[in-house]
Amino acid sequence: MTRDEPRLPAQLAPPRLVLSERAPHLVHDVDVVALPVLPADGPSGSVLLGPGGEQVAQLVGADLLGVLEAEGASGAVGEVTAYAVPAGVPGNTSLRSVVMVGVGAQRRTDLRRAGATLARHTRGRSAVATSIASATDDAGLEAFAVGVVLGSFSFAWRSTAPERPAAPRVVLAGVPDSREATLRRAVAIAGAGWRARTLATVPSNLKNPDWLARQAQEVAAATGLACTVWDETRLAAEGFGGVLAVGRASATPPRLIRLDYTPKQADRRTPTVVLVGKGITFDSGGLSIKPGEAMSTMKRDMSGGAVVIATLAALAEVGCPVRVVGLVPAAENAVSGDAMRPGDVIRHRGRRTTEVTNTDAEGRLVLADALAYAVAELEPTVVVDVATLTGAMKVALGQQVGGYFANHELLAERLFAAAEEAGEPLWRLPLAAAYEEKLASKIADADNGAGGPGAITAALFLQHFVGDVPWAHLDVASVGDAPEERYEWSTGPTGFGARALLQWLGQDRPLDGIG
Fold first, then answer.
1. Which of 73, 149, 225, 327 could bridge to 68 as Cys pair (CB 3.0-4.6 Å)?
2. What does DSSP assign to residue 489?
3. How is the chain split among helix, strand and coil, in percent rounded to 5?
C-alpha cells in the first residue's frame, strides 16, 4: 500500500453454514427457525409445512398452518410469512421468530432463491436454523447454500457499521455430517461469487492494476496457487502492445496477472484450460470518452478479471481435475496527453496489428494480447475468456442473461449446461462470418471499432487470436450489474460467471470429447 492510498475498511464475511442432524426445534442458540412451505399438491388448496413444521408449531404453541392460511400463503418461491415469538421458548430463550419460506417446486432455482430470500429476510439476526435443505438431494442442498451466502452479500465504505448485517451463522438442520463435502463445495462456489462481487465493487480510487495484482497474490498465497505478475517493463519487453496502449495514459501502469492451478494427481498428460479475464480497473472510454452517466459503473469493468481470480481460488475445493491457468490483463483506460488516440496502430503479442478507431473498444485490445500469449506459450486444450465487453450484449439480452460465443460445439454445450445448473444462464450468439469484412482496416490487420452488430464483431475480432484452439468468449456486459436486489443478486456488480465456470470445471471430466 502506498503512502496516500485509501484504506478499505474491513468487510463482512460470508455467513458460516454448518450442518446439524438435529431437527430445527432442537437447535438452540438461534433467534430464527425457518421452515419450508410447499404448494398444495391436491384439490384442498392448502399449503404444506416441510420437515420439522409440526414440532416447531408445538414448540411455539401456534397453529402455523392457520397462520399461513390467514396470510394467503401459496408456497411460491420468494414468499415469506413470519410468526413472532417475543419471549422465546423453553430451552431456547433466544428464539424470536419462526419464518416460513415458500420453496415452490423445489428445483435448483427454487431452492437457490429460497436460500437468498431467507438470508435477506433475516438480516439483523444473529443465527438461523432451517430445515429447508433437509429433504433435498445434493444438488438442492448446494443450490440452497449458494443462495443463502449470496443473498447475504454486502459491501460498505461508511464511517459506521452496517445497521442490519446478514445473520453470521446458518444451521442446516436435519442434514447429516455425511453431506459435509457437498456443503464445502457449495460454500466454495458461493464464495467465488462473493469474492468476484467484492473485487468488482471496490472503487477505482483504490482499485488500480497494481492493487488488483496484489489481491491476486494474496489469493494465491492463501489457496496454494502460483502467481506471476508482469510489470510495464516486462510487458514491453515481451510485446504486449495492446495492454500497454490501453494503460499508457494512466498514472498507474498496467499489469498482466497469471495464476496457476495444478490438481494433486496431475501428470504430463493432464490437459490445461486457460481462463482470460478482462481487467480494466476503470474505463473512462479514453479519448473516445464516455458520457458521464455511462461512466458511473465503470469501476466494475474488470469483472471478467475478478471472475477469473475468484474461480482459480475455488478450483481445489470443487475438485477440478485439470490444470487451469488464469490470465488477467489489467489496465486503466484513462485520458492524458499520452493517451492512445483514434488512428493509432498497435502491435499485439504475436505481431498481429490493430488500427484503433475507438479508444472505448479497449477491452478487446487487452484480451487479444492475453489470448495470443495463452495459445503460443501454454498449450491449452481449451481457452475461455470472460469480459464485460460490449453494450450491444445488454441491448440484445437485457440484464438477466449473459451472452457467449464458441468455436466448438461440445464446449458450447458444456458451458450452457453448467451455466443453467449454476443459476448464471447464458445464451449463445453466432460467430457469423458474414460480418468479418467489418473488421477490415486499410493499414492494419484489423479495426477495433468495427461497429454493429457490436457483440458479434467484437467476438470475431478476438477469434483471430485463438487460431484453431477450442475457445469460448463470455460477454457478460449484459449482466455485469444487477439493477436491483433480486434473489441471490444484489444491486451493483454481480461477479457473473464464476459459478458457471466452477460448475463446469468441477465435473469429473470437464474436457471429455473436447480438443
1. 73
2. B
3. 35, 20, 45
Residue 72's alpha-carbon distances to 57, 68, 99, 372, in angstroms, are 18, 6, 15, 59
Q: What is the distance between the alpha carbons of residues 410 and 413, in angstroms, rounded to a whole number?
A: 5
**pLDDT at 75 exceeding the cut of 80:** yes
CATH number at residue 38: 3.40.220.10
Reported confidence tier of residue 143, pLDDT bands at 50, 70, 90? very high
CA dihedral defined by 390, 391, 396, 399, rounded to 10 degrees? 110
Cβ proximity of 49 and 37 under 8 Å: yes
- CA atoms in the 13 A half-sphere facing the CB of 245: 32
Average pLDDT, stretch 400-424? 98
Confidence at residue 437, expressed as pLDDT on a 0 to 100 scale: 98
Q: Are residues 348 and 491 in the same domain?
A: yes
Condensed to tens digits (0 to 9), the pLDDT of residues 319-363 reads 999 999 999 999 999 999 999 999 999 999 999 999 999 999 999
Asked if 130 and 206 sit in the same domain, the reply is no
CA 254 to chain centre: 23
For 489, residues 6+ apart whose C-beta sits below 8 A from its C-beta are 150, 482
Chain centroid, CA 468 distance in Å? 28
6 domain residue, yes or no: no
pLDDT at 291 over 60: yes
> Side chain identity at 472, as an amino acid letter?
A
Q: What are 14's three cell numbers?
A: 460470508
Residue 143 near residue 114, CB atoms below 8 Å: no
Q: Which residues contact 362 (CB under 8 A, 6 or more apart)?
A: 246, 280, 283, 286, 331, 333, 340
Listed range (41-50, 166-175, 449-458) with the worst mean pLDDT: 41-50
State the maximum Cα–Cα separation within the chain, in Å, rounded to a whole number: 82
For residues 183 and 185, give the distance between their C-alpha atoms in angstroms, rounded to a whole number.
Answer: 5
CA atoms of 97 and 477, how far apart (whole Å): 40
Q: Can you give the residue range of the structural domain that contains 157? A: 16-175
Active site residue 125: no
Contacts of 479 (CB under 8 A, 6+ apart): 397, 399, 400, 401, 402, 424, 494, 496
The single residue of 22, 123, 214, 290 carrying the catalytic annotation is: 290
- With bands split at pLDDT 50, 70 and 90, how would you rate the model's confidence at 91? confident
Which runs of E-coded beta strand occur in 306-425?
Answer: 323-333, 345-347, 353-355, 382-387, 402-406
Q: How many CB atoms are closer than 10 A to CB 395? A: 14
- Which of these is catalytic: 112, 299, 364, 414? 364
The reply to whether 182 falls in a domain is no
Give me 99's grid cell.
419464518
Which pLDDT tens digit goes with each residue over 101-124? 999 999 999 999 999 999 999 999
Number of domains in the chain: 2
How would you classify the pairing of strands 353-355 and 446-447? Answer: parallel
